[in-house]
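User: Just a sanity check before I run the rest of the batch. Below are the structure tokens for the first item. I only need the designed sequence back.
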């Protein structure tokens, strides 16, 4: 039975190992900064477990009625076994009164790992996520923003990041629906 619970101290090493191996440097936040934001109640670090055994990580940014699923990863040996799907469904129930969004690397431009990006996006679409009406260049990484239920505007998205990171967030330019932060 899949569960998402606050990160337990005993699983910190596994959490960090999976975090650092699953996301590229350009998309990772420093772990100590995430712990600080957790202390400030702006971010939550969760572990995904199956019958009490650590099998993945789940990180959220919390702002008003918006939950950003900032990171979701499953141990490589357990991928393609439905754990990610179960974790998303668990999250939908866990945050049923919130608007849930997440970011994925763009599938709209050619790149070396486009096939993997399309596969990842298909996974999220298959699990009920829809595209928001804006994309972002988030610290020089082009991202698409997906949502589970009600839309989140770019202004609300930006407010969420400013709430979390303060002056670290600056909008460089906006063209149509694509904005650089």
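Assistant: Here's the designed sequence for the first item:
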């Amino acid at each position: 039975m899949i569960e998402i619970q606050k990160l337990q101290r005993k699983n910190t090493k596994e959490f960090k190992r999976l975090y650092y191996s699953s996301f590229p440097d350009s998309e990772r936040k420093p772990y100590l900064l995430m712990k600080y934001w957790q202390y400030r109640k702006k971010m939550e670090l969760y572990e995904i477990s199956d019958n009490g055994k650590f099998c993945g990580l789940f990180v959220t940014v919390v702002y008003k009625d918006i939950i950003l699923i900032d990171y979701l990863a499953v141990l490589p040996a357990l991928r393609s076994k439905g754990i990610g799907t179960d974790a998303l469904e668990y999250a939908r129930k866990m945050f049923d009164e919130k608007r849930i969004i997440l970011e994925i690397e763009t599938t709209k431009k050619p790149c070396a790992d486009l096939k993997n990006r399309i596969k990842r996006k298909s996974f999220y679409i298959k699990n009920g996520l829809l595209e928001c009406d804006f994309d972002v260049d988030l610290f020089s990484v082009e991202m698409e923003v997906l949502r589970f239920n009600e839309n989140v505007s770019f202004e609300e998205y930006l407010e969420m990041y400013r709430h979390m990171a303060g002056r670290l967030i600056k909008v460089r330019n906006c063209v149509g629906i694509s904005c650089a932060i």
